[in-house]
Design goal:
By secondary structure, the protein is mostly helical. It has a domain at about 10-75: Winged helix-like DNA-binding domain superfamily/Winged helix DNA-binding domain (Arc Repressor Mutant, subunit A, Orthogonal Bundle). The chain has five helices and three strands. Helix 1 (about 10-15) runs antiparallel to helix 4 and helix 1 (about 10-15) packs across helix 5 (about 75-115). The longest helix is centred in the C-terminal third of the chain and has 38 residues, at about 75-115.
Length: about 120
């Protein structure tokens, strides 16, 4: 997957589409970790984990630093916030729509129980 040509939000969602990458992010939510520690729980090759990390890094969701011989990975909270903010705008929209539907159904139910025509 090429995330380089995508806008930052699209790159983040493309990276989040993979369950292995989401699991890596979940682990990093507990704190930064070396690449080897991130790769340990997965039944895939270390090279495959490195490719997942590269996608996450290109999307901006994580960053890496070198500490002597180890590559340390950490979450990028700004990119996660940007993604969360986008989702939350639509969450507010749908909650409003569902509240309106709930009120409509409640009115319909009340009218039906009062014996009034719909």
């Amino acid at each position: 997957m090429e995330t380089e040509s995508l806008d930052p939000l699209s790159a983040a969602f493309a990276a989040l589409a993979d369950p292995t990458r989401r699991a890596i992010l979940e682990r990093l939510a507990r704190g930064e970790a070396p690449v080897g520690d991130l790769a340990a729980p997965f039944p895939i090759t270390p090279q495959a984990v490195s490719r997942h990390i590269k996608v996450l890094e290109k999307s901006g969701l994580i960053s890496r630093r070198t500490d002597k011989q180890r590559r340390i990975i950490r979450l990028n909270p700004q990119a996660l916030k940007r993604t969360s903010d986008w989702v939350n705008r639509y969450r507010a929209f749908w909650e409003g729509q569902l509240d309106s539907l709930g009120a409509f159904l409640e009115t319909q139910n009340k009218e039906a129980s009062d014996g009034e025509p719909r």
